[in-house]
Amino acid sequence: MNTADSLFGSVHLGYIVIETNRFDDWHRFGRDAIGLHTDRLSHHAMRFRLDDHECRFLLQRGDAEDATALGWQIDDHQSFDRIVARVRDRGVPVTEGTDEETALRGVERLLRFPGPKGIDQEIFTRARTTSTPLEMSSTGFVTGASGIGHVAITTTQPQKLRGYYDTVFDARLSDYIDETINGAKIKIRFLRVNERHHSIAIAAVRGLPVDPVRTRIQHLNIQVAELDDMTRSYQRVKELGFDMALGVGQHTNDRELSYYATTPSGFEWELGWNPIVVDESTWEPTTHRGISIWGHTPEGQTIIDKLTQFKTAALSLRHHEETVPALSGAGIPD
User: Fold this and answer.
1) Per-residue buried b or exposed e for 182-214, using 16+ beta carbons within 10 Å of the residue's own CB
2) Confidence label for 208 from pLDDT (cuts 50, 70 and 90)
3) Alpha carbon distance 139, 155 (integer Å)
4) pLDDT tens per residue, range 108-121
């Protein structure tokens, strides 16, 4: 594609929608452990804020206990319309958000279309902001041009997921990580849509068509502005009795210092500090051996946890994974 037609740089992860019935646990996790500003709108809806945007995380009542939608902020109406045309021209349905949906997400001009693994992709051009002061334990989070962070997805169809995000957003490959976890060889592909090292991470078991994770996303990530915010939130997670998936460590590829806590819905929440910013003039994809330079050791994992993961992987063989073929095409090989 002509670089002049590329959407790269004009796409930013703006919000995430989570469906859960565990509102009280999520309230304690988001506000008291992670340190986010919390707005309980009703019995059916709660929001977390990181900055002046009205909504960065929308929690709605439901049984999924999972992330159900990713909201992508698009810089301008021309880029927005080009994404819509790409989706519609391939015969994929696009749905306009209702007034209630746009209000809950704190955005204008919301459109939705299907995404891999049943995760709706929602795009918007403008976010509503508020002057209401933030009430949170953290001093601040890194958002702006980098978006709010990233999500990681496990899949049996990694090439199809790369094809999807290339078709829709002109995502670029940052790098790969090869790792062995619990005896399984994992390959992770990191895709960026702006200056952040990655907004989407795609992980797959090499040589086996299994998915060891129950939820649509394996983890989500946000970035604190100060190192002390990360260390203090790590302590709060432990003191409040939430499960810690991985202790503090540093990644090999983006050099982010982080930890992973287990959310009330079962997927993981990574809180990180100081990842690198990609220099587009010099960056070349490479393969790293192992996810961490140091740390990120499992905490509190039991034999039962491992057996549950093996069972989930086995059950995934019975299910067809959604890939949105019209947008993923033949996929992009490694």
Assistant:
1) eebebbbbbbbbbbbbbbbbbbbbeeeebbbbb
2) confident
3) 35
4) 989 999 999 999 99
Mean pLDDT (the chain) is 94
Contact partners, residue 139, CB within 8 Å, separation at least 6:
224, 225, 226, 228, 229
Residue in the block written with tokens 């439901």: 62
Tokens of 121: 């992709």
301, pLDDT greater than 70: no
What distance in Å separates the CA atoms of residue 328 and residue 161, rounded to the nearest whole number?
6
Q: How far apart, in whole angstroms, are the C-alpha atoms of residue 56 and residue 317?
A: 34
- Residue 246 pairs in a beta bridge with 260, 298
Contacts of 181 by beta carbon, 8 Å cutoff, 6+ apart: none
Name the CA dihedral angle for 161, 10, 250, 264, rounded to a multiple of 10 degrees: -70
The dihedral region occupied by 205, where left means phi > 0, alpha psi between -120 and 50, and beta the remainder, is beta
